[in-house]
Amino acid sequence: MLLTSTQVIYEALRDGEIAKAALDVTETEPLPEGHPLFTIDDERLILTPHIGTACLATRGFVFRQGFVFALSQPSSHVLLL
């Protein structure tokens, strides 16, 4: 995993230092209208609105991990909603 800023990613795409990028999280969410990333060609940049856990496989994994954690804790420390 690489942590960087949206400005650095924008500049790298603009200058051809990287060919493609996919972002699920940005410093400001949602990105403001007119943000430079919106000028990058759709075939080179995928922007999603912080929904990385939206697929069923990921949600299932997160649920299973949470369930395993909950079972390992004293019942007074767990709140299941």
Walk me through what this model shows.
- It is a single chain.
- The chain has about 80 residues and is mostly helical.
- The protein folds into 2 domains: about 1-50, no CATH class; about 55-80.
- About 30% of the residues lie in helices and about 5% in strands.
- The protein has 2 helices and 2 strands, in the order αββα.
- The protein has helices at about 5-15, 55-70, and strands at about 20-25, 45.
Mean residue pLDDT: 80
Low-pLDDT residue spans: none
Across the major sheet, the strand order is 1-2
Q: Count of helices?
A: 2
Could you tell me the strand content as a percent range?
A: 5-15%
Summarize the amount of helix as a percent range: 25-40%
Task: Work out the number of β strands.
Answer: 2
Give the distance, in angstroms, between the N- and C-terminal Cα atoms: 31 Å
Report the radius of gyration as a whole number of Å: 18 Å
Largest sheet: 2 strands, parallel
User: What form results from the Cα inertia axes?
Assistant: elongated
Task: Indicate the structural class.
Answer: mainly alpha
Whole-number count of domains:
2
Give me the secondary-structure topology.
Layout: H1 6-14, E1 21-23, E2 45-47, H2 56-71
Parallel strand pairs: 1-2
Task: List its salient traits.
mainly alpha; two-stranded parallel ribbon; 81 residues; 2 strands; elongated; 2 helices
